[in-house]
Write a structure and sequence with these properties.
single chain; alpha/beta; five-stranded parallel beta sheet; four-stranded antiparallel beta sheet; binds calcium ion
Length: 224
């Protein structure tokens, strides 16, 4: 089955380079060069994944991300010009699954797109038991997270990261281990991606849900 990717990027040379690479890898690719036409294109073609630049004319990438996720979840990989923490945190909060900082290699971009799509495909078959961490309840089958009985919205990546830590039941997992197991990367790059997602999960579910183990990584539950 062909997988369809929408690329929303106003720098035409970058958009074309991404399109050429993705098409050579067998993806169907559609391009938009500003925010409003990106939203319109996603509504029309219902892509399997969106590559979305942050700085766009018309509407910025964050707003585009919010609008395209209004009716159904679609995986989003954001492109940022600067490796700015605020950009990353806002991006992850509006529902992006991952981000890359320019300049990046199209080979790496394809690897990340495949990893995101693999995770998206693995989800429906999931039938594991409900996990509990203090007041937090995680249902891997329905992908619902409750905090003191009330549902909390996590992005798909935040959900997978929290679930992986919860399944390890207190065992400390290193950033590179988490990147490999949650994101599917093998090269160990992007450890800050893990940190950003952990911060976002703590903001939504409280600081005690994940503890930092200095110089090692993360574990589920409060510090003891
Ligand atoms: Ca741009």
């Amino acid at each position: 089955v062909e997988q369809r990717v929408v690329v929303v990027e106003d720098e035409v040379a970058i958009a074309e380079a991404i399109a050429v690479r993705l098409r050579s890898e067998g993806f169907v690719v559609d391009l938009a060069h500003d925010g409003p036409s990106g939203v319109e294109l996603c509504d029309r073609v219902q892509p399997d994944l969106v590559v979305l630049d942050v700085m766009l004319p018309g509407l910025d990438g964050f707003e585009v991300c919010r609008r395209i996720q209004q009716h159904r979840h679609v995986p989003v990989l954001m492109l940022t010009a600067l490796d700015q923490e605020t950009d990353l945190i806002v991006g992850l909060r509006v529902g992006a699954d991952d981000y890359m900082t320019k300049p990046f290699s199209t080979r790496e971009l394809v690897a990340r797109i495949r990893a995101i799509l693999r995770r998206a495909e693995a989800r429906p078959a999931d039938e594991r038991a409900v996990l509990r961490v203090g007041e937090v309840e995680i249902d891997p089958r329905t992908r619902v997270v409750l905090l003191a009985g009330s549902p909390v919205h996590l992005t798909p990546t935040e959900f997978d990261l929290l679930t992986r830590l919860a399944e390890a039941s207190g065992e400390v997992l290193g950033r590179e281990q988490l990147l490999a197991q949650v994101w599917g990367y093998r090269d160990g790059s992007g450890a800050r991606t893990v940190d950003s997602h952990v911060r976002s999960i703590r903001r939504k579910l409280g600081d005690d849900v994940i503890r930092t183990v200095h110089a090692v990584g993360y574990a589920i539950g409060p510090a003891t």
